[in-house]
């Protein structure tokens, strides 16, 4: 079973050179908090006020989708949504709640290409997604359509996957999954609309099926809203033979959960 993922792991010469240049740049341009712009000691760090404004996710949460519960619920508790309709992915976790105080972090990376917070993002995602990373074989960034990639010039999911790889040591497999349909932006779409929008959007690259068969994979993306994108990716990977597909995102939209005992 050929899985040439080691080449996408962390310790490469270009990465080391970039790290040295970043340290030199810090001497000239002091690092700033990616949220407020106030001075901090290292790139990507939040100052105390910013840190207090971010709602980081931690147990108790749904054992499947990771939505936070309002009070301790016991091990293995599943939220009503996952009980009613199980997601295609096996488990999902996110670092923090996507809300006004934290939105600037996710949007700064996605639309402004601000990468100074990536080291911190990788640590936060690896911590929140420890259950997803345990026993995994590789990280799969959600791909952009080639047209969108040419416009944006980078894939924020790949940047996040590389950051998680730095912490976890897991290799990144960026060329296994591809987006074959140029989907419109999902902003403002209903949950059902997002599902329709993602239908048939992804495919496994020809000749890569052998890398997926029996593998335990972790999808990496920036924001978990309804789960439509994560489910579409997971469905494609499972149809190609993946044994397990989990997901970790930087942020997720959270709605109140009423627990059912």
From TrEMBL:
CDD domains per the UniProt record, alphabetical: PRTases_typeI
Domain Phosphoribosyltransferase, residue spans: 168-252
Domain of life of the organism encoding this protein: Bacteria
SUPFAM superfamilies noted in UniProt: PRTase-like (SSF53271)
Pfam families associated with the record: Pribosyltran (PF00156)
Family: Belongs to the ComF/GntX family.
Protein name, per record: ComF family protein
């Amino acid at each position: 079973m050929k899985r040439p993922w080691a080449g996408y792991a962390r310790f490469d010469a270009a990465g080391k050179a970039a790290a040295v240049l970043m340290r030199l740049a810090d001497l000239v341009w002091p690092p700033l908090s990616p949220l407020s712009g106030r001075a901090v000691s290292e790139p990507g760090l939040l100052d105390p006020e910013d840190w207090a404004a971010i709602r980081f996710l931690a147990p108790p949460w749904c054992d499947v989708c990771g939505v936070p519960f309002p009070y301790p619920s016991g091990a293995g508790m599943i939220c009503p949504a996952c009980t009613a309709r199980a997601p295609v992915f096996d488990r999902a976790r996110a670092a923090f709640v996507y809300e006004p105080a934290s939105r600037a972090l996710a949007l700064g990376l996605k639309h402004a290409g601000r990468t100074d917070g990536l080291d911190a993002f990788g640590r936060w995602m690896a911590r929140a997604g420890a259950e997803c990373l345990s026993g995994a074989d590789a990280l799969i960034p959600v791909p952009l359509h080639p047209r969108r990639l040419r416009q944006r010039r980078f894939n924020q999911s790949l940047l996040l996957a590389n950051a998680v790889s730095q912490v976890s040591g897991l290799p990144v497999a960026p060329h296994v999954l591809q987006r074959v349909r140029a989907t419109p932006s999902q902003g403002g779409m209903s949950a059902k609309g997002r599902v329709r929008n993602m239908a048939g959007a992804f495919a496994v690259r020809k000749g890569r099926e052998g890398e997926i068969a029996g593998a335990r994979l972790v999808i990496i993306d920036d924001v978990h809203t309804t789960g439509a994108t994560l489910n579409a990716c997971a469905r494609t990977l499972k149809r190609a033979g993946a044994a397990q597909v989990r997901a970790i995102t930087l942020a997720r939209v959270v709605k109140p959960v009423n627990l059912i005992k």
